[in-house]
From TrEMBL:
Classification via Pfam families: CHAD (PF05235), CYTH (PF01928)
Name of the molecule in the record: CHAD domain-containing protein
Record-linked InterPro entries: CHAD_dom, CHAD_dom_sf, CYTH-like_dom_sf, CYTH_domain, YgiF
Molecular-function GO term, any one: metal ion binding
SUPFAM superfamilies associated with the record: CYTH-like phosphatases
Length: 500
């Protein structure tokens, strides 16, 4: 199992990496220089890729090496995956030669299948100039640092490669984030959410990146609370990071899911703020990213949902203007995600969760060291009580108070979902379902309130008739729907969740 951190390097900065004083200072010898030619093989139906495998034959200095890798596990930032390789007498792949190395039955059967072997064909290739340092950290830990520069070729299409890979050979993988941050101070780097193989397959089928929803958090009762914090935090980061490729392709749904991942992360950090406070600089960067994602999502909702629901000829022009404003903000998001600050906060957050950065100064009797099935109870209770208190004090016509109820409902729902593996299944599903229904109603009211504010920004004379009509419609809808909240509020206030 290899553990590595991949970072993208702009073509203009490749030589700066090769000449970086930090790498030279940590390496006991000059770096190796290699010329590599890789060919990736699969069947016409891409059976290997669809089963989470890649098969590569690498040619270098008259030798051939065959390598099979599994899809990356862990967070998208810190890749952990199985890898098996063997020498070949020539360029023709022989996956069956790797079967004895593979313990997983499903993978072994796939590689040993004569049917698969008979259908293998080249699907893409890349040529690479590789610079490799063997780094010795001051405390004796060993890191292989590899800089790859070249081109990925898929038919007549190609993509430039500029990739820095840090692989932990001996020691704590958390140190990879520290090393990356040190390099990032002088050379702007970006998290590489996709491997070369993933980029090649993306060029091959040319499909738009799919939005990635949250996956279930898997916990068990023997965990400590800090284990659960780490597991949930990395789950939230995985959703956030996995949608970056789609956001860079200006996908509305990918941006929405990236924002959901960040919202879940913020809810988690808020829940644990007394036990594991996040450093202030990371907190500020999270709020900065949240603001950029939120502004873009607001215009997406206005253009794609709120205005079309109003309808009418007077609104048609508003939809077109809102769509253009949303497209402009999606383009701005590209700049946001390419800013050094984004890379910095993602590296910092990964390092904080992987390295359990909350431990510094932590008391020996901290609840974080207790078993999760016991220590989670006060956290869940606090989330429920806060929601009930806000519901009890709510004036349905008070926009700010309504928004506070919405935030509290969201945090209570996320808390239940985070710890659902440790809670009674049926009551928890009912609790989450009821909270979701309230969230939908409050979310719709919030969308209407946000739309009213966005429409005030559309001041062109030719839009006046449309904005006047839309604002009148929204005002009436807010008045009507705010008075229909009470049944949903009362249903949540009566809820109980056994086990917490």
């Amino acid at each position: 199992m290899e553990t590595e951190l991949k970072l993208n390097v702009a073509q203009r900065d490749l030589d700066k990496v090769r000449q970086h004083a930090l790498l030279a200072g940590l390496s006991p010898a000059s770096p190796d220089e290699l010329e590599l030619a890789d060919t990736y093989y699969d069947t016409p139906k891409l059976d290997l890729w669809h089963n989470g495998l890649t098969l590569r034959v690498r040619a270098s200095d008259g030798t051939w090496v065959q390598t099979v890798k599994t899809a990356a596990g862990g967070s998208p930032a810190l890749h952990q995956r199985g890898e098996w390789e063997c020498a070949l007498p020539g360029p023709t792949p022989d996956p069956a030669a790797l079967v004895r190395q593979v313990k997983a039955k499903r993978i072994a059967e796939l590689l040993g299948s004569p049917h698969i072997a008979a259908q293998l064909r080249p699907v893409f290739n890349n040529t690479t100039r590789r610079t490799r340092w063997n780094i010795e950290l001051p405390d004796g830990q060993l890191v292989e640092c590899v800089l790859d520069a070249g081109d990925l070729h898929v038919g007549k299409r190609n993509a430039a490669i500029g990739e820095l890979e840090l692989e932990m050979k001996k020691g704590d993988p958390t140190r990879l984030f520290e090393l990356a941050l040190a390099l990032h101070e002088q050379i702007p780097l970006r998290i590489a959410n996709d491997s070369k193989a993933a980029r090649g397959y993306a060029l091959l089928d040319r499909k738009a990146p799919a939005a990635v929803k949250a996956t279930p958090v898997r916990l068990h009762k023997k965990m400590r609370l800090e284990d659960a914090l780490q597991c949930i935090g990395l789950n939230c980061l995985a959703q956030l990071e996995s949608n970056v490729t789609g956001v860079l392709a200006q996908s509305v749904e990918s941006l929405h899911q990236m924002r959901v991942g960040l919202r879940r992360l913020r809810a988690l950090l808020n829940m644990f703020e007394d036990l594991a406070p996040l450093p202030a600089d990371m907190h500020d960067s999270i709020e900065w990213l949240s603001g950029a994602l939120g502004a873009t999502r607001d215009w997406d909702v206005l253009a794609g949902a709120t205005l079309p629901a109003i309808g009418g000829d007077d609104v048609t022009q508003l939809v077109a203007v809102a769509e253009q404003r949303a497209r402009d903000l999606h383009r701005d998001m590209l700049q946001t995600l390419h800013q050094p600050r984004y890379t910095q906060v993602i590296l910092q957050l990964n390092g904080w969760f992987h390295g359990r950065g909350w431990r510094e100064g932590l008391a020996d009797k901290s609840p974080l060291y207790r078993r999760v099935d016991d220590a989670m109870v006060p956290l869940l209770r606090k989330a429920r009580q806060r929601l009930r208190k806000r519901i009890g004090a709510l004036d349905e016509n008070d926009l700010a108070a309504r928004h506070r109820v919405r935030i509290a409902a969201k945090k209570a729902r996320y808390a239940a979902e985070f710890f659902s593996d440790l809670l009674p299944a049926k009551p928890t599903k009912r609790y989450v379902r009821t909270l979701s229904a309230l969230q939908d109603k409050l979310g719709h009211l919030n969308d209407l309130a946000v739309a009213r504010g966005l429409l005030e920004q559309l001041t062109a004379p030719d839009l006046l008739r449309g904005t006047t009509y839309a604002r009148g419609y929204i005002a009436a809808a807010l008045e009507l729907e705010s008075h229909q909240l009470r049944p949903a509020l009362d249903a949540v206030a009566r809820l109980k969740m056994t086990g917490s």
